[in-house]
Amino acid sequence: MQSWVLPLFVLIALIPGFGNRKGTHALNNGLGSTPQMGWNSWNHFGCQIDEQIIRETADAMVSTGLAKLGYIYVNIDDCWAEMSRDSQGNLQARASTFPSGIKAIADYVHAKGLKLGIYSDAGYQTCQGQPGSLGYEYEDAAIFAAWGVDYLKYDNCHNDGSKPEVRYPVMSKALLNTNRPIFYSLCEWGQDDPATWASSVGNSWRTTGDITDNWSSMTSRADSNDKWAAYAQPGGWNDPDMLEIGNGGMSTEEYHSHFSIWALMKAPLLIGCDVRNIGKDTLDILSNTEVIAVNQDSLGVQGKKTNQSGNLEVWAGPLSGKRVAVVLWNKGSSTSLITVQWTDIGLSPSTNMKPRDLWQKQDLPSHKGSLSAQVVSHGVKMFILTPTS
Ligand SMILES: *[C@@H]1O[C@H](CO)[C@@H](O)[C@H](O)[C@H]1NC(C)=O
Ligand SMILES: *[C@@H]1O[C@H](CO)[C@@H](O)[C@H](O)[C@H]1NC(C)=O
């Protein structure tokens, strides 16, 4: 255990209402001290990708200002490779859509101060049928490193039926063996409760099946991810899947909820829309620096659902500096008053806390005991509570 882990553990244990961390020793690759931020091609483009889209997205990450807010990974998902290996057994970029090769794209992305992610699979083939890395872990990790890849998303299709606990650590060791720091994102869809074993294997692990761009999919992924909160820690994060904000299937209020809850849960913030054609509402949501700061807080404790009354929910988690992040989430169909009681979030009722509304960007007068707000249907209010001295 690293020397800083123990004091942190004791500190968390002392905060009533938030429980203990359960994560074991984190993977020692120096990455993921806060949840990863960036973009991934899948949610918007699916298999319809090419190198021009990747380059233009990298350009747009910089020109929109998203890159300087911390969204540094540009991640290529499935469909970048030829459907067979070359005569030496190497994966090869798909000549029809990635004619310059992955190394050239990595160089392009790096020149913009960004990092490049790629995708493979712990099976014989990826979900879209390109060669998987099962049995080729060391060869594939070596070629990713040689190309300058900084991140690997590792899927679970067409596997051999053995447990993920057996297949995923092989790639973990292969990546470490390259001596290039490569962020390792496990995508076994939460099948074998990866929170309980993956913190020594990867930097994040999916806790759910794929998200789709609708309210019920998004809310159910949040609830499934919530039960693993105690296992998140710097170096390894629960992953309820990538963001759908900007893809058009939810209302602006619903996208506010999506972003607020993902930030509070210390989920990866991987943008899933077409950043080249991003709208103002979408950019405003993704660019809220105060919400991003909750996600990236150094304490690294996943916030969770702390109280629920029908469709009205309180989610909260501790931040550095004895602050507390709170999301009041109205899953019902009409505007409602939601109250967070200090006792629900580990505070003594007599504590004076100064709330700041992170979407209104407004400081409120100090509160003692509780805080109430009207919350619109499918929307949130998000606050940071800071102790007054
Ligand atoms: C949301 O997406 C899921 C998964 O694709 C689908 O089964 C469901 O019908 C969708 N719900 C709505 C309301 O569109
Ligand atoms: C949760 O919310 C309900 C309804 O507002 C409230 O009665 C209760 O005191 C709260 N706290 C707990 C721990 O249930």
TrEMBL record:
GO terms for molecular function: alpha-galactosidase activity. It catalyses: Hydrolysis of terminal, non-reducing alpha-D-galactose residues in alpha-D-galactosides, including galactose oligosaccharides, galactomannans and galactolipids. It is an enzyme of class 3 (hydrolase). Keywords: Disulfide bond, Glycosidase, Hydrolase, Signal. Residues 1-19 form the signal peptide. Belongs to the glycosyl hydrolase 27 family. This is Alpha-galactosidase.
